[in-house]
Sequence to fold (179 residues):
Amino acid sequence: MEDEALVFGPTFEALTRALGTRLNVEARGRFRAIGVDFDHPLLPAYPFDTWVKAMDLASQLVMPNAPEKERHVAMGRRMVDSYGETLVGKALLTAMRVIGPKRMLERMARNLRTANNYTETKLTTFPNGHHQLWCSRVASTSFYCGMLQRGVEVEGGKDALVESMAHDKTGATFSVRWT
Fold:
């Protein structure tokens, strides 16, 4: 039997920070309906499916009139910044800033494992500075594109470009470049 895929509480804490004042009474009710009660202490972990619903709902609250892809890219970017404001995220981003974007990608499985218990990654680096990163269990490639792009920027990469190359039930492959 496969272990349940879980997303840890600090990721949901980061989600509340990313939402800011948009997490009003009505929004709290919508989150409660999908299994996340922000009016009580966060659980240590939530099922993967709950995270997927919560991330999409948060993206709708932040950019209600934007297409899904654009909303998810924006949420991925916001989550990097807001995760960096949590206790776990501060420690992670401090360490990552020292090592730079390439080593950040090399350690991506470990980085993402601060947020969940399931992510596996594989990085392929080409001589021209192009990188391909495969990540397991990706629900929204747009969210990952935004998250990876912002992560590269935070780590010092300039003109970051992240694109989804392939996606199936096992995971997704991303092209990652910067100057």
Remarks:
- The chain is about 50% helix and 20% strand.
- The first strand starts at residue 6 and ends at 8.
- The radius of gyration is 16 Å.
- Residues 6-73 form one domain.
